[in-house]
Amino acid sequence: MSCLNRRLPTTVLLIEHLKNEPNLRRFCGFERLRDIPSEATFSRAFAEFAKLNLGDKVLKALVQEYVGDKVVMHISRDSTAVHAREKPAKKIKPEPKPPKKRGRPKKGEETPPKELSRIKKQLLQTPEEALAELSKVCDVG
Fold first, then answer.
1. CA distance 51 to 138
2. pLDDT tier at 30, thresholds 50, 70, 90
3. How far is CA 102 from CA 22, 106, 108, 116, in A?
4. What is the DSSP string of 98-117?
5. Rounded to 5 degrees, what angle do the CA atoms 4, 39, 20 make?
6. Mutual orientation of helices 11-20 and 39-51 as an angle, nearest 10°?
7. Residue 19 in contact with residue 11, Cβ under 8 Å?
8. d(C-alpha 68, C-alpha 62), whole Å
9. Are 1 and 21 in contact (CB under 8 A)?
10. Are 88 and 138 spatial neighbours (Cβ–Cβ below 8 Å)?
11. Segment 75-133, tens digit of pLDDT
12. Contacts of 61 (CB under 8 A, 6+ apart)
């Protein structure tokens, strides 16, 4: 249904889309490829539609059926530029950790427990504590 949001300036393009897109073809009422009318038939039909103002009549009927006498509200959004910091804040480098010992620990020696991941920490925290840990400055990524 990719062509439904595009304009089809010629009858030839419409017929081409109907031939290549089965969903559109069925939506328009043509089950098989051979059911699609010729370019001349489409042109005569479009001329008749224009003469009868069919588009305006269909739109009026749809609006009457689905909107009726209701007032239609809409939202207008302003696209004014908002000034904001463009460069990320400088990060404070943490102190370097002492190098890890390689290999297996000696008998009786305990390894320090691994630090929990951010997600696992958040499962144990209250929402306020989790929000307090989030960065409040411009960041990258």
1. 60
2. very high
3. 64, 11, 16, 21
4. PPPPPSSPPTTPPPPPPPPP
5. 45
6. 120
7. no
8. 9
9. yes
10. yes
11. 878 777 777 666 777 778 888 888 877 888 888 888 878 888 888 988 899 989 988 88
12. none
Tokens of 16: 């081409």
What per-residue confidence (pLDDT) applies to 6? 62
For CA atoms 97, 99, 101, 103, the dihedral sign is positive
DSSP state of 34: G
Backbone CA torsion sign across 126, 128, 129, 130: positive
Joined tokens for residue 96: 């370097």
Burial of 42 (0-12, 13-18, 19+ CB in 10 A): middle
Identify the residue whose tokens are 């959004």: 77
Q: Are 11 and 43 in contact (CB under 8 A)?
A: yes
Q: Which residue has the tokens 């069925």?
A: 26
Quote the percentage of the chain above a pLDDT of 90. 30
Tokens 């009927």 — which residue? 61
